Structures are given as C-alpha cells and as structure tokens.
Fold this sequence. Notes:
Helix content is 71%, strand content 5%. The chain is mainly α. It has one domain. Strands 1-3-2 form a three-stranded mixed beta sheet. Helix 2 packs across helix 4 (80-95) and helix 8 (181-195) crosses helix 11 (227-252). The longest helix is centred in the middle third of the chain and has 35 residues, at 118-152. It is globular, with a radius of gyration of 21 Å. It starts with a helix and ends with a helix. Mean pLDDT is 77; it is low at 1-19, 125-133, 170-177 and 264-270.
Amino acid sequence: MKKIFLIFSIMLFSSVFALDWDSQSALNRVNNIGGKLLKANNVNYDIEFKVSHEEDVNAYANIDKEIYVYKGLLEHVDNDEELAATIGHEMGHIINGHCAKQGILNSIISVIANKMTKNQIVSATGQYLAQSKLSRTDEFEADLTGVDLIAKAGYNPLAMISLLNKISGNYIDILQSHPSGEKRILNVYNYIEYNYPSYIKKGYNTDSYKKALVMIQPSVEKRNSSERLVNKYKNEQEKLLKKKEKRAKKMQGSNTVWDGYYNTLLYLAN
C-alpha cells in the first residue's frame, strides 16, 4: 500500500510540476520574437516556430522550414535577446540552405550505405571528415547570419556571444561536427566589432558575456598588437561582407537552390 501511495505521489508531483511550464506562453514568446525577425529582415517565405517540452538545452531547424526551441533552452536564456540569438541562428541555417543541403546528403548516404565495399567505407570516412568541416562552416555562417538578423530587428548582437558561451563546448575541434565554443565566440566578436562597433563599446551586461570576453581577450590583444594580424583581420571581414551580400540575396528569395535540388531528389526517388 505504501508503494502504491509513493507511485501515486510521484505521478501527482510530476503532473503538477509539468503544469508549471506554460507551453502556450512559451510558444507565443517564440513566435513574437521569430515574427519580429522575419518582418525586420523582409524574409518573404514562411518559417514556422514551435516549442518542445524536452529538457535539453537545444534548438534546431529542419528542411520543412520549422524551428523548434526546447523547454531546456527557454529556461536557460537570460532574456529575449538571447532567445532572439537562438532563433536567428536557426533561421540562418534555413536561409543559407544548410538544412536542405543536409537533407540531400542524408538521402544519398541512406541509398548507398548498404552497397559499400571495404575500400568504399575507407573513402566514405574521409568524406565524413570533409563533411564535418563543411558542417562547422555552416555553424559559423549561421552564427553571423543570426547576428545580422537580430541586429536588424533592434536586438543587441552581443547576445549571440552571451548565448554561445552558455551552450557551446570547448573541445578538440577535429573530433566534432561543430567548431569549438571559443572559435565561434571569437568569430562572432570579430564580426560584430567590424560591422557593429557601437555595440562593442556599449558592452553587454550578462555574466556569460563577461566570461566570454575574458576567454577571448588574449586572442584579441594578440591581433591588435600586430599590424600584419590587423590587416589579416580586416581582409577577412571584407570577404565576409561580400558573403553577406550573397546571403542577403538568398534571404529575399522564396526558395534556395538547395531546396530545388532536394525536391528533384525526392521526385527521382519515387
């Protein structure tokens, strides 16, 4: 009898605890911020924003132009600006065609996986490492697109750094599909410093941002102490500006070239 009462108590506590999270309120919050980003950046194709009750500190975008934000992440961000940075990053994956591209690659892999010889497996391993690098490039690009999206919508782009310092790990880069947290933070910081310098001067009042600054400060000081490194930094930022123009053109379209390829692949598969 005590065992039954204990089980009932746990179930009751769990149900009451679950009610503490207002999923409709969370969905409204995500949709309000997502809608603001879409409107401010003239994104003229539909992106659907959704929330998940899962506890993971995570968010993701898929090929159907859906962005899911997990409960764990919603409880982890300090403010709406960090949530905007999250949504902006995932929008960056959609806008830049990363989701569609990954869909194609996954489809191809699933078709050939059961037909590979030993030599082909070795070759595929090399291709996987190359794809990991490509995935890391996608993350960098989504970060910077997210910065542009939230800045245009009136949010402080330094929120992206505050967010990244919370959710990205610092690990051996070659073993991961995502770049290390420090590399991503420094990449975003350099981009904001060059394109939105007033925000750097203003700063951002979260502990996460302040800790991120401490982490990257040696790299920033090293760069600023060398004329060669300063010139390299400026050249890199100019190249990124040109890439941003290409991203802007994609942003204005109702589709991406990768979406077209994916639809063709689906047609051929049927």
